[in-house]
């Protein structure tokens, strides 16, 4: 009799569980299983998208928060980088980055910061707004690459929206998309059709369309990614050395008279050949991890350091504690920062040494030219690390090697400049 009661109770429990699970699956369906809502093309206001995707929108708004990085490097506060790295003032002398070069704020500030930066002058062209606004697609459809040559001052009044949902999502299907034509062209040259990319690949491509190195072609100001020889620092430098489309330099340093190239946030290139990139870990896996809220799974649109979301960003793969993971990141970034400062300082000393040599009577011009080429390469190797946003974590071994090369080349530049004056002025 007792056994029958136990059996009946067990059956009742099983039936109850089936009913609860069935109700959860079919009656109380979580939002991530509800069909997406289409939004008209040309609607760039994230608040409009947020009416249908409130969790994503709520997390996107967190990008307006300005705070230091959990590791002590980077962060989203608008602070001049030269305060921590004084060598910037010498190394970028004669160029806009010596006047204004701050830490990057979040995507919602892209247009605002473009309007306010001291690097913009009346000669600045429309190419500079390429990665600052969700309206890029509209402008490119209307004007093609002609927008890149237009005065930026003519385009700024048109820019009402910074980087928003439509930069990365097709409003009709909500599928990920790439808007930047420069990225599409660069990938095509590498034999990759972005339109056929998997969702996993797109979770990096939508970031890579802007977080990259680029240059403007002379005359047309067409935005080009210098990937013709590869994505590594020396390959990009060799690409520039070939003077593509007549591009020679971004500016000439007023002291050393060296033709310089300025690197621009090469996050995608650095990540691509790093441990995570090679293992197939997408940018969004770490910087926009999946979250859950009320049973709904969604991708966080707070694009931030994974060290703020360690549980969701890191511990889905890594079993170590949050404290241990944070410590490892801090250690890696600390080593890179130490080498980056050393490299930047040595490069600035090379500028000074070449300037002194150039002022000497009867200086050996051939030796001076060699010194300038060594310095140009040294600064490139320092800057392509300094301009990248992970303080080396995207690719620690490559980054430390690159900084080591920078220090070595800068010392060679100093030695060569000194040799250029040996015997100079003697009769």
TrEMBL record:
<dbReference type="GO" id="GO:0042279">
    <property type="term" value="F:nitrite reductase (cytochrome, ammonia-forming) activity"/>
</dbReference>
<keyword id="KW-0479">Metal-binding</keyword>
<keyword id="KW-0732">Signal</keyword>
<dbReference type="Pfam" id="PF02335">
    <property type="entry name" value="Cytochrom_C552"/>
</dbReference>
<protein>
    <recommendedName>
        <fullName>nitrite reductase (cytochrome; ammonia-forming)</fullName>
        <ecNumber>1.7.2.2</ecNumber>
    </recommendedName>
</protein>
<keyword id="KW-0408">Iron</keyword>
<dbReference type="InterPro" id="IPR003321">
    <property type="entry name" value="Cyt_c552"/>
</dbReference>
<dbReference type="GO" id="GO:0019645">
    <property type="term" value="P:anaerobic electron transport chain"/>
</dbReference>
<dbReference type="GO" id="GO:0046872">
    <property type="term" value="F:metal ion binding"/>
</dbReference>
<dbReference type="GO" id="GO:0020037">
    <property type="term" value="F:heme binding"/>
</dbReference>
<keyword id="KW-0349">Heme</keyword>
<comment type="similarity">
    <text>Belongs to the cytochrome c-552 family.</text>
</comment>
<keyword id="KW-0106">Calcium</keyword>
<dbReference type="InterPro" id="IPR036280">
    <property type="entry name" value="Multihaem_cyt_sf"/>
</dbReference>
<dbReference type="GO" id="GO:0030288">
    <property type="term" value="C:outer membrane-bounded periplasmic space"/>
</dbReference>
<keyword id="KW-0560">Oxidoreductase</keyword>
């Amino acid at each position: 009799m007792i056994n029958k009661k136990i059996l009946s109770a067990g059956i009742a429990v099983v039936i109850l569980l089936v009913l609860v699970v069935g109700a959860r699956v079919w009656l109380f369906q979580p939002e991530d299983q509800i069909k997406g809502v289409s939004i008209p093309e040309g609607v760039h206001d994230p608040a409009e998208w947020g009416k249908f995707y409130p969790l994503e929108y709520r997390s996107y708004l967190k990008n307006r928060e300005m705070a230091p990085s959990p590791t002590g490097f980077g962060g989203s506060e608008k602070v001049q980088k030269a305060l921590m790295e004084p060598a910037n003032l010498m190394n970028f002398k004669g160029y806009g980055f010596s006047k204004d070069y701050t830490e990057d704020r979040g995507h919602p500030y892209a247009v605002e910061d473009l309007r306010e930066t001291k690097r913009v002058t009346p000669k600045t062209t429309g190419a500079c707004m390429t990665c600052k606004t969700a309206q890029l697609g509209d402008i490119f459809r209307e004007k093609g690459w002609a927008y890149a040559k237009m005065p930026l001052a003519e385009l700024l009044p048109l820019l009402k929206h910074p980087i928003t949902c439509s930069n990365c999502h097709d409003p009709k299907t909500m599928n990920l998309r790439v808007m930047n034509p420069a990225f599409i062209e660069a990938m095509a040259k590498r034999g990759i059709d972005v339109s056929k990319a998997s969702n996993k690949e797109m979770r990096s491509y939508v970031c890579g369309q802007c977080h990259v190195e680029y240059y403007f072609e002379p005359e047309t100001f067409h935005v080009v990614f210098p990937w013709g020889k590869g994505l590594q620092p020396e390959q990009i430098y060799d690409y520039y050395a070939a003077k593509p489309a007549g591009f020679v330099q971004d500016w000439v340093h007023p002291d050393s008279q060296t033709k310089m190239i300025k690197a621009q946030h090469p996050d995608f290139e650095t990540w691509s050949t790093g441990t995570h990139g090679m293992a197939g870990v997408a940018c969004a896996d770490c910087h926009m991890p999946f979250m859950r809220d009320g049973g709904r799974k969604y991708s966080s649109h707070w694009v931030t350091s994974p060290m703020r979301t360690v549980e969701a960003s890191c511990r889905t793969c890594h079993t170590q504690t949050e404290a241990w993971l944070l410590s490892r990141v801090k250690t890696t970034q600390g080593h890179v920062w130490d080498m980056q400062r050393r490299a930047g300082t040595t490069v600035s000393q090379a500028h000074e040494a070449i300037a002194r040599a150039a002022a000497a009577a009867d200086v050996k011009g051939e030796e001076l030219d060699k010194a300038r080429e060594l310095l140009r390469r040294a600064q490139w190797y320092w800057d392509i690390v300094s301009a990248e946003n992970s303080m080396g974590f995207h690719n620690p071994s490559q980054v430390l090697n690159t900084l080591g090369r920078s220090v070595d080349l800068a010392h060679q530049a100093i030695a060569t400049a000194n040799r250029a004056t040996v015997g100079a002025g003697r009769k």
